[in-house]
Amino acid sequence: MAPIVRIENLTKHYATGFQALKGVSLDIEEGEILALLGPNGAGKTTMISIVCGIVTPSGGRVTVAGHDVVKDFRRTREIIGLVPQELTLDAFETVSNTVAFSRGLHGKKPDPALIEQILRELSLWDKKDTMLRHLSGGMRRRVLIAKALSYEPKVLFLDEPTAGVDVTLRKEMWQLVERLRATGVTIILTTHYIEEAEEIADRIGVINKGEILLVEDKAALMKKLGRKQLTVELAEPLSAVPEALSGFRLQLGNGGQSLVYDYDTAGERTGITGLLAAMAEQGLRLKDVSTEQSSLEDIFVELVGAEK
Questions:
Q1: Domain ABC transporter: where (predicted)?
Q2: Domain boundary pick from 196, 222, 248
């Protein structure tokens, strides 16, 4: 099956000479949740804006469900939903009118039952007659999502959807994303909250300086690039790592009360057995042993840091 979104060698140059995208290529499969991570200025929003028909590319091609986003603009806009970063709403309009208008703007017939369902799912039903200027920032962000869902898109872009909202709303949004995916909607999420990607994404993409560094299945990425750390708590503190243990590249931690050992989970041998045997030979008494898996944030920082 062809990907629902295909991005091929996409470039974007601005009049200032800044190149926001440098030959980006990316396939997004129907029904998946793809999290796109990258620092500020990495090119995330530019890429999304081109796919959604807001920004014109300098080069390359983008298709959505087989339709070119430039040549078949009207058709692709019927398929794509966008929740932008900016809270751009008519302050003097009500919640329900704003959402219903968005549906009509995309050529859909009125469907009050659907609008009610969306507002209820987003905990906005009791605010349906409230003017937008009276809503909190978190509530206005919910309205942006409701607007995008009102015309039943097949592909939904969420550009920093939980920026500036509280933890409770963030978790509610994650649940909503899961429900949307269950109905077959393809979701592309950009976020600064790496725990969001770790929680809900099927695949992780990392972009930096206008280039895609990798796109990988989340579990495979964690297995391939993840590291584990063994921490050995000592019964008596050390002032330095014994010379006999130097081959293990240990670090002293907690004021000499622990030895920290990094190892590769994908390696043939972890070296832990040899380390513990060597420690016993040195007469070191162990108080406790624990392991910790590197997080997606650790991997992200390592990838982006390597590009600097």
A1: 5-234
A2: 222
CATH number of the domain within which 232 lies: 3.30.70.1560
Three-state SS at 196: helix
Residue linked to tokens 């998946």: 32
Domain hosting residue 237, numbered range: 227-293
Angle 112-121/137-149 helices, nearest 10 degrees? 140
- Helices and strands of the chain, counted as H and E runs: 10, 14
Q: Which residues pair with 187 in a beta bridge?
A: 33, 156
Report helix, strand or coil for 304. helix
Are residues 124 and 142 in contact, defined by beta-carbon separation less than 8 angstroms?
yes
Residue 31 lies in a domain: yes
- Kindly report the pTM of this predicted structure: 0.72
Pair (56, 202) in one structural domain: yes
What's the DSSP call for residue 295?
Answer: P
Q: What is the tens place of the pLDDT at every residue in 130-161?
A: 999 898 877 888 888 899 999 999 999 998 87
Burial 56-87 (b: 16+ CB within 10 A, else e): ebeebebbbbebebeebeeebbbbbbbbbbee
Count CB atoms within 10 A of the CB of residue 117: 13
